[in-house]
Write a structure and sequence with these properties.
By secondary structure, the protein is mainly alpha-helical. 78% of the residues lie in helices and 0% in strands. Helix 4 runs antiparallel to helix 8 and helix 7 packs antiparallel against helix 8. The protein is globular. The model has no long low-confidence stretch (mean pLDDT 88).
Length: 176
């Protein structure tokens, strides 16, 4: 808390007075991050005039914008999931004003109406977020094991985005 107070340019008692606990401070940071992107994601995903995979590409762009500014966010999120997944989800639901549920319902509707394959929703979540966060979670190892100088540069991530969408198509696209 001392380091955070110093970076914020305030003293530790002021930080403690405002947030009271580390958990409240964490929640405030998380709320700020979720509120910075969730409305855009919901707006894109619920736009029926745009094909689903085009919407997904734009959602990846939104996430990349956030993750490039905060490349440690996926690892932080994983630690929080393991520390208290219930609190993390409750906070996301609370600050998203029902938008998390809207995304869930949109995906289930796509399945019900036959626009994508019907499958357990967790398969979609694991696939999308696993692919999305992989470069950010594994880039130190990838840099050591391959000739990719920086898997977090925009050019590389643009190529990876193509892979994400291709994998999601393979997972979800209904073959006629």
């Amino acid at each position: 808390m001392t380091d955070i107070a110093q970076r914020a340019g305030i003293n530790r008692p002021a930080l403690h007075y405002y947030f009271r606990t580390k958990e409240r401070m964490l929640e405030a940071v998380y709320e700020d991050i979720v509120r910075s992107f969730m409305p855009k994601v919901v707006q894109l995903l619920t736009d029926r005039n745009t094909p689903l995979f085009e919407r997904m590409e734009k959602v990846v762009d939104i996430y990349y914008g956030i993750l490039l500014e905060r490349p440690n966010l996926p690892m932080f999120g994983l630690r929080e999931i393991y520390r208290d997944a219930n609190h993390l989800l409750e906070t996301a639901i609370k600050v998203s004003d029902g938008q998390v549920e809207m995304i869930r319902e949109m995906m289930l509707e796509e399945m019900r109406e036959g626009r994508v394959k019907t499958m357990p929703l967790e398969f979609v979540i694991y696939s999308f977020y696993g692919l999305l966060f992989a470069p950010f979670a594994f880039h130190p190892l990838v840099k050591l094991m391959t000739d990719v100088p920086d898997p977090l540069n925009k050019e590389y991530l643009a190529k990876w985005k193509t892979n994400i969408i291709s994998q999601m198509r393979t997972l979800l696209e209904v073959k006629c």
